[in-house]
Design goal:
By secondary structure, the chain is mainly α. The protein is built from 1 helix and no strands. The longest helix is centred in the middle third of the chain and has 36 residues. The N and C termini lie far apart (63 Å).
Length: 51
């Protein structure tokens, strides 16, 4: 493999890794929403501290 081919492959890998990170984030957000929904929690009260 020539250096330019290796660089092209590295660039493709970087793009794929970024797509994977974005999809993972979407999945985690959906999962979090599903957990909150299934637990019958109120979104408005999730970040408020209880004294």
């Amino acid at each position: 493999m020539s250096i330019s081919n290796i660089e092209k492959q590295q660039e493709k890998l970087k793009k794929l890794n970024e797509k994977i990170k974005q999809e993972k984030k979407k999945i985690e957000q959906r999962l979090g929403h599903e957990i909150i929904k299934n637990a019958n929690l109120d979104y408005a009260n999730l970040d408020q501290k209880k004294n």
